[in-house]
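Course assignment 3, question 2. Fill in each field.
Student: A.L.
Task: Predict the tertiary structure for the chain below.
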Amino acid sequence: MSDAIFLQPLVPAEANLDIKKSRFIASALPVTTELAARQFIQHHKSLTPSANHHCSAFIIGAPRLTQQAGYNDDGEPAGTAGKPMYQVLEGQNIGNICVVVTRFFGGVKLGTGGLARAYADSTKAVLQLLKLQQVSPSCTLKLTFSYAHSAAIDALLHSSNISLIDSNYAELVSLTIRLAVNDVEGLIANVKQRTSGEISIEQQP
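Answer field:
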């Protein structure tokens, strides 16, 4: 599977685990922005203020490509909670997700290894309850070229799985298109070949 293709949750889920008298509540939510992830984390902190820890991990977009990701130990020893949770999400190639594991301490210390396993197992438990769908990220490109290349470009676009978003016919032709990230490299090579490089290609946000 390409790094750009990933799984995302469709609905929230929650799982409960009791490990050596500590209670772990793992909650997962589909999110598409870092702000939504942080609001979800804050919501759980306000929902159960009596809990000892609210550890979290989130990934926005494709797990191995995104720069919008993070994790937090929330008072647990460094590296024993948020990072193991994050590694589970990345390992299962799940993005657009935020997981919060709320812990109520039961009086028995788990040690660093035990904590890491507990938070990882809690994350795995909630992931097993999720309904997931495969996502193929798309990309928007703006192509600008002379009218002399219109026929060749039109033929290429109509023979591919590409959506035309906008078009502008002025001194030059400008087409804004959307296509799968995996197809971008091939399309760019094709349009450059068909126009002998006489084309401007700009990636849109």
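Instructor remarks: The chain has two domains: 6-134, 137-204. The chain has a mean pLDDT of 92.
Grade: pending
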